């Protein structure tokens, strides 16, 4: 189509700070909050989220058979050994490329990333380890189906806390662009941070009624998007003390009830919706693909840091399609350039889904997820949603 | 450059510069009309008493006022060199344009002319249509160019000038080009003419003082307009000049009075302080990104604007006392500057008023991050640079340059734990009596600002050591920026300085008897309650400012001519 | 070959063709004829497209369901169709292939009506109308005419189809354009600031502080526009009344003594 432009986003190429991750051989110990800042005089604390990405834990036992295979590798597996050997010869590289990229397409030219549900492929390799980051979302330390959940295996948190629900990590934790290597998160971390920097996913937190950063039984948390671009320094780090306004879109202004215990802020379960537009590219104003972070039974757990920032986890159940939205939006490019086997990914997510069970089919449609989030102090101007004019 | 277009452009340029030397055909006589736009200059051109190059802002404002703000000016301006310890306004009196700078002006001129005569716009600038768009039409060209020329040259064009530009339009329309190509060419030539690029101060015999000269009416119109509004004279002012009103002191005063009351005074005040405070240095300000990673381009570009907004608010909007500029707690802030001031900025866009809390050391012009950052090194604050800037810019007290063989090691070693603060480092440096002599002048004014780092952000300590902000000025000891601001506000040197600067800014020269003029101005300034409006009115109307003492300059085209051999027939 | 690339986003179409969702300003209608039975109706303070029964038409924004399905035009299937009814197109209407980024065939030929306001695509129940290329048109079951009860639902998937009249052709100088503000077109300057003039016959003292809409002194005006060269700066006048600007395009900021310029 003549008006179409193709913008390729190579998230791996973005110059960003590296997140330091929890690693299997050195589980971080919970540290007592020492020398926390004084509580604010007016009880209000604002933050802008500087990091929001799948919570990565690189356990040594996680992927014993290796990382999730690429589309190319999976294609080769479909070939007899002799043919596989022949295709791997350097002289036949062109033929192999043509064949494995062809493997990304199905009938009517549909591609494997836009229509992963139309391809019948086995699930990708999943996390086998027992430890992962996340929160206990179903208030249950076992893994049996209950209420509208499906049966699942719980993780133990890096600090030893039981009952961690993070099936998203189980399904996706062996994908190279998620998992990363040696303490460095995958490219998804950099990519999602870039969305925060560019303002496309700007998130802010506004705490009110804070009397103590150590213990306070009653704190209100507004967790919302902002339309403002991030104020960052020359190294793309968020600058503390910048001002942001809460979005005018009331759907993306989540009001949560929380409490602080021993320097850790937690919130009660709620439905959290945040924007997640996919439009990153050379032109920031392109608002093409819109999507949402959509977490049900979601909660926050943030620890106050001595430098005034907060670090923690946002957990909830999100639609399985949302987990692979980036790959799905990427379409054939995600398959043939990034090499995703989206059908294998979809099959894994579907198999691991543990929330929002469809009473008719028994299939769960959402998956427990743990997102790692950091936020730095900021001045947040709240904006109450416009009163909805009754038009019925 | 090559090709016919470039030849044409060069021809236009040279022809523009050489106009008065051309032998020209008579301009077509337009029907007698009361509209001054269509009349050539009645009197002969006066003697050239001075020429001041338009600044970039003046050029842009002039184009916007003459053609409309939708006509864009795109290009780089060759900077006017600032004479040491003086204003750009005085530098403009001696500013030449290099060949490269002229090429820039030429490109801008062609671009402006192309916009004006673009098909969808040209009807708005023309009182007539050509008989044939493919051929020259001298009558229509003249009727179009005469009013435009009057605005560009700030006086009616002479009969010769009209003839030359009309001829140029005619020639430009030949060779398969059309009428409008010729018009573009002629107008571009007007825009690179010294009559436009320079404010030409022409003089006439002063009837009140036989044997001496005074600025003539049109020169006075330009003086008033660029001084007070930083732009070209408007229609009312040009008409007053046409009618000879501006050599009458009473009428001049009435007109100037009206002008200083206009909101457009803001532009004049901005331009004056940007000149006085060396704002051109903001363009080259660089900060070490390792030391100050949060000094991003948004912050850099907001700093000067913040200072100007504060100045305009205090002096123009509120018509406040100049001395209070050093103590006011009112300023403006935007989102980019929020983190630097650790202030909440509710408005998502633009600037909002902001008032520092009582007891905050931020008050006054010197507490603005712009001043503090500009007079710092790239990776550290500098009490010496700040003190020197205060002395030179705000008190008009030049400080000598350091001798060439000074050892700066002690002051530059900001990581030295044994000498954690700038005061301690400077003390060590000043053990050399040669250094101490000058630092005694600067440092007592800069050290009180040490609680602000090299980008103007507040700090309580330096290298974990407490910062001593004691200072002394004219025998009075004080603490911190607030104390410094109060000391400056109380000093006659402060008000004398700005009054003297205003005179230089208006005239482009130092007063003959500098001290006496400054003192007289200061006394008037004091009587007016130190209102900037009154000061500008005073310098805009004082007789001395319109007196021409220096011998007249040679004709501009002689000064500008690149080759004496080129004549109008020498078209390449 | 494997590359270190986490995602590749195919971004298509400039924003203009895409606009309609609740968080974007609605696009002006092209002025082309409406599908049979579709008309425009005022609901509250906005005008929306309605079906033959006067019921509000909603667009299912295909962009908003990207990542929730493989083939966006068919997203509202099954249970969804008990709530939402596609606006069916005539059986013989020429069907445009869904754009490839929404699961369509990338090799399908592009039809001339592809860029029109109203096109027909294969929907969950057969050929159905699509507005502005990305909004599959539906009505909501049981919704009474004259109401908009489902605006922005489900993460901006469902958005009422707002009617925005086509912009008037204007003959004006200095980058003046017409902008839709609160349902009517008003004139704005090149920066998008509203142009205003005084109410009544004369301006009085009220407009002394207003910001003039500057013209060049050398300008001569055009059509209903003239130049007044005598003030501090030359000023445009429209139909013989001086023009001023206010900052921004919010009519609430217009002074009481002023009124906006209407093309």
Automatic annotation (TrEMBL), chain A:
Signal sequence, start to end: 1-22
UniProt keywords, alphabetically: Signal
Protein name per its UniProtKB record: Uncharacterized protein
Top-level division of the source organism's lineage: Bacteria
From TrEMBL, chain B:
Positions of the DUF1592 domain: 215-342
InterPro entries for this protein: DUF1585 (IPR011478), DUF1587 (IPR013036), DUF1588 (IPR013039), DUF1592 (IPR013042), DUF1595 (IPR013043)
Keyword Signal part of the UniProt annotation: yes
Start and end residues of each DUF1585 domain: 474-541
Annotated organism of origin: Sphingobium scionense
Domain DUF1595: 140-201
All copies of domain DUF1588, residue ranges: 362-462
Keywords: Signal
Signal peptide coordinates: 1-26
Highest taxon above the source species: Bacteria
Protein name per its UniProtKB record: DUF1592 domain-containing protein
Keyword Signal: yes
UniProtKB/TrEMBL annotation, chain C:
Alphabetically ordered keywords of this record: Lipoprotein, Signal
Protein name: Putative lipoprotein with Yx(FWY)xxD motif
Native source organism of the sequence: Sphingobium scionense
Record has Signal as a keyword: yes
PANTHER family: BLL4220 PROTEIN
Lineage of the species this protein comes from: Bacteria, Pseudomonadati, Pseudomonadota, Alphaproteobacteria, Sphingomonadales
GO annotation, biological process: alkane catabolic process
Signal peptide: 1-21
